[in-house]
Amino acid sequence: MKTLTVVIPVYNEEKRIQLSFNAVNKLKNPRGVRVEKIVFVNDGSRDNTLAMLNKYKQKKQGKLPSRAKIEIVSYAKNRGKGYALKQGMRRVESDYGLIIDADMSIPFANLKTFVPYMVNNYDVLVGSKRLASSVSLVKRSLPRKVFGWGYSFLVRRVLGLPLADVTGGFKIYSRRACKTVYPRITQERWSFDPEVLYIANKLGYSIIELPIVWKHVDSSKVGVLRDVARGLYEILIIKINDLKGIYCLPKPRFSPSLLIEKVYLYTKS
Predict the structure, then answer these.
(1) Do 93 and 186 lie in a common domain?
(2) Whether residue 139 sits in one domain with residue 19
(3) Are 38 and 64 in contact, with CB atoms under 8 Å apart?
(4) SS3 of 146, please?
């Protein structure tokens, strides 16, 4: 039986936070896993998000189907999703920590695909929207598709991570990965995802990319050229940080990229 802590970062989510509450209210322990704690990280929200979180905790503490404890981490200044997750993952004392977006665009139902690999002690499990067997319930716009492809291409070429998708909001990390990777991250906003995976890979942790069922929830506009340019800049910063020794990473005795596996379940012909 593996234990799990769920970390949900939130920022100005008063209009959508009920999606998180509904999902947590319905979350049951999948076979082989016991959910110990739900951690909401309020990243300096300026709306009613924190008040809604406190009210939810007061109402539901000790009453969830999973029997998980509810914890709220909050601070006044908005720092970015990367910083929020760094604070949330510090609270992981379970065998694994799951990161999931507040809009639940990648629902908890995907956990059943991940459980066998948790049982087999993989360190990093990446939910991928771009594997052949992943299922999208809502089509994305062309600009988002172009950006997703472009960003993944840059990550592969600059950081050497042969992953189809690094930005999906459904990832699971072992406790040892939580404790050794997240304290090293420097990117607080845009490029924290590839930074976390880059560090995990360089530390020699086993990484597996798994298909998911997901739906796109539109919350922001994408400027393809602007966002790809920003992504390239921050990816280069990650590489430069490594060359400068900022991450304090050991020198690999083998090619780290060979550690990454992909799983094509129910692959479309």
Answers:
(1) no
(2) no
(3) yes
(4) helix
